[in-house]
Amino acid sequence: MTNHLFSSFKMRGMVLDNRIVVSPMAQYSADETGRAKDWHFMHLGNLAISGAGLLILEATAVEPKGRVSPNCLGLWSDNQVPCLKRIVEFARCHSNTKLGIQLAHAGRKASMSAPWQGSKGLLPEESGWDLVSASSLPYPGRPIPQQLDHIEMDKLKQHYMDAAIRADEIGFDLIELHCAHGYLLNTFLSTLSNTRKDKYGGDLQARMRYPLEVFRAIRAVWPEHKPLGVRISATDWVEGGWTIQDSVVFARELSMLGCDYIATSSGGISPNQKIPVHKGYQVPFAEEVRRATDLPSIAVGHIMDGLQAEEILTKGQADLVAIGRGMTYDPRWAWHAAELLKVKVDFPPQYARSSPAMRKLPR
Ligand SMILES: Cc1cc2nc3c(=O)[nH]c(=O)nc-3n(C[C@H](O)[C@H](O)[C@H](O)COP(=O)(O)O)c2cc1C
């Protein structure tokens, strides 16, 4: 019987050993200049030997104002290159896991404390900063953001391009553009956050315009053989907001610009969202994008184990599965999935004797 989860997958010049993706997860643990620290070395080094086919680094800000917290990772300066290069080189030495980075701007949801400090909004006098967004409509409870004008939007596009060039210099295999979770590019897409009167606001075509321009700009500087995908919030989960049908239209436009996949997350634009969380609750979005477009999709959210992941792939609901919290809870998630599916996978030689096959009790 063919196994799907442990079959390889090709995107442009990148070949993944299997369909397991470590989902991007912010660590709020960079230094105050956006540089990765030892925590990242440990966290990503560990996940790089998890056996996943692809590891996507956390939301990484393309300018200081784009960080969620003062300790989020950044790629707006050459000073941020060496610390990430060290991590990528370590991973290359010890595993065949491919490495991606998520480029992001938190927009009107920026300038917060870390979750373990209460995710509180930080004012400029508390090491926070002024917010920017598609419109001057605040996220409820947060300060009024400044609506970006065209000159600032052009500058920001350049920041995305510069970050992509640095990502290539570091040696990343893939970029994921963050258009989800109520962050800056997501605020352009949704009517709940975009009230602009210019060519970037109004109907769906206009609201998609800036995220598509940013995508095109990154694609222009990112090497041809390297994949560029997009994470979207497939629905706002709010009446009158962004829907899966809008996502399909957006995905088709992205496909025409050379997008390599869509990762279908959801929500984040409004606290009024009503999310029916259950096992695999976002999988139907990955399925719909895959069905209605020619793009591969990544399913994410409450994918609990290898059996569920295999079923998603077997049913053709997604091409890849991304695992977030399950991976940090159990960085050997992929090994356990292999055991469940009776597939033999390679362990790093240092750990080879820990495989169940190598520690059978004598009869
Ligand atoms: C600690 C933490 C940090 C996260 N940071 C990001 C992020 O940087 N970018 C992103 O797109 N999603 C982020 N997410 C969402 C995850 O990538 C994932 O979509 C979500 O946790 C659902 O998948 P799961 O049920 O497998 O955890 C984060 C989630 C967690 C728990």
UniProtKB/TrEMBL annotation:
SUPFAM superfamilies: FMN-linked oxidoreductases (SSF51395). Its cofactor is FMN. It comes from the Bacteria. Keywords: Flavoprotein, FMN, NADP, Oxidoreductase. Coiled coil: none annotated. GO terms for molecular function: FMN binding; NADP binding; NADPH dehydrogenase activity. Residues 5-339 form the NADH:flavin oxidoreductase/NADH oxidase N-terminal domain. PANTHER family: NADPH DEHYDROGENASE C23G7.10C-RELATED (PTHR43303:SF4). This is NADH:flavin oxidoreductase/NADH oxidase.
